[in-house]
Amino acid sequence: MIIGVPREIKTEEYRVAMIPAGVETLKQSGHRILIEQSAGAGIGVSDEEYEKAGAEIISHHGEVIRQADLVVKVKEPLPSEYEFFRPGQIVFGFFHFPGNQELLQVMIARRIIAIAYETVEKEDGSLPLLTPMSEIAGRLAVQEGAKYLERPSGGRGMLLGGAPGVPPAEVVILGGGVVGSSAAGVAAALGARVTVLDIDPARLKSLAETLPPNVVTLFCRRTNLIAKVKEADLLIGAVLVKGARAPILVSREMVRSMKPGSVIVDVAIDQGGCVETSHPTSHREPIFVQEGVIHYCVPNIPGAVPLTSTYALVPITLPYILEIANKGFLRAVEENRALGRGVNLVEGKVVHPGVAQVYDLPCYALEEVLINFTRR
Known about the structure:
By secondary structure, the protein is of the alpha/beta class. The protein has helices at residues 20-28, 47-53, 61-67, 101-110, 131-148, 178-189, 201-210, 222-231, 252-257, 306-335, 337-341, 353-358, 366-374; strands spanning 2-5, 32-36, 56-58, 70-72, 90-93, 113-116, 170-174, 193-198, 215-219, 234-237, 263-266, 287-290, 293-296, 343-346, 349-350. It has 13 helices and 15 strands. Strands 3-2-1-4-5-6-14-15 form an eight-stranded mixed β-sheet, sandwiched between helices.
């Protein structure tokens, strides 16, 4: 199989979907790997290193995509890339369709096979390809929030952990999943007073047993939510509904109740955001102010630390890439149920229920679509 790895072109996105060790593994299995020139520059990997591992270096972005049977990306395709995709081509990467209707419509029209990192799901409900990025995003959410609480950044002028005789900041985290628990651990370690809200009593119990004493867990009923948002110096939106749009939990009125110069980091912005006043930003221009509150709403937060992120992500994605390359799409998704759950689109058909529900589109059963593949 021809595997194409284009350079990421999203603003300030320095991650890359493949490292030389991965190229070597794929090459040993008999595959041809095309790497776009300078694709690894953001993590300090040269074209020569990729070539030494067995890759072919291609100078034209579009040619890497056009020639590939399987395109491996980190972030979703952008408008300037749309024309390069063709029917039946497998594209494997983060898509986040519920937060991007235009992308969904175009990919349906291009009739690609879209397998989304964020919806590959194991039997236990875990999301193995999303988890490492969620852990990093949670930690960075606290780091960025702390920076924008500083007065030169426009914030209240607070140190998360306070100082002797001065109380620490109030950090409120909406969602106790991977992002939320990672954020809570970092914020607690810095000495903040942390509150995590969630709707799952079992998850709250687990967090209460594993996180430090300066973390309080609360059931996310409306009265608790309104009160804690108002108290927050740093509010972190860490809500995830698998394969679907994030629910808007924080209204504009709630944002208006927050203290001037407080900070919101909406990590859920990839899936549309969980705060009414949020809209996507970029690493180049990461913040805006609404109702006197600083909003940090970068969809690709882990892209700020591409070296860490790439080396956390690729070892987890590589076995799935290898399985697709070795077996082909049909056999790979039939034999690997987790990978099958990651399939969002197949040649113009939406096969992921969460994506279909967001846009009120017909949802085809993957098993039925695969039968049509078998009959070819």
